[in-house]
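just leaving the lab so this will be short. what follows is a protein written twice so to speak, once as letters and once as structure tokens for the fold. can you read through it and tell me how you think this chain folds. thanks a lot i owe you, the record is right below.

___
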Amino acid sequence: MGAESITLPARFLATVAHLVVTLTILYDTDNITRRALEETSGYGDEKDSLQAQATTSTVCFVLEFVGMFSGVSLFFPTLNSFYIFLHINGTLYVGLFIGLHWGLKWYTWFFLLFSLLPALIEMLVCFAVFKLKMREYS
């Protein structure tokens, strides 16, 4: 029983938990925007921005799941630990963002750190495996 027996399920569960919290934002954008904004000015723009970030975050999750289920990034233990760290923190902070009605600008930072960064790393790993032949993929 190697490290993969712990990190692989943990990575999957952390990613799914982060996805669920992000989908909560996507499906409850109206209420989240209303609660975060005290005045009604700029409601439409802020709602559109939040919805665009949550949708892009969902696309980032699709990229990560493709990399995970294809096995490209599955057997990099350090990378798996980093993904687990990012997604657990992403779940925590996005959940707090929803529950405590933080300002909408906070989600931009959470999106960049906890959704876009792992997706970019996943794309770099795919590039390294397929183009640079860093690790044999069969």
Q: What stands out?
A: The mean pLDDT is 92. The first helix runs from residue 4 to 27. The radius of gyration is 17 Å. Helices lie at 4-27, 29-36, 43-70, 77-99, 104-130.
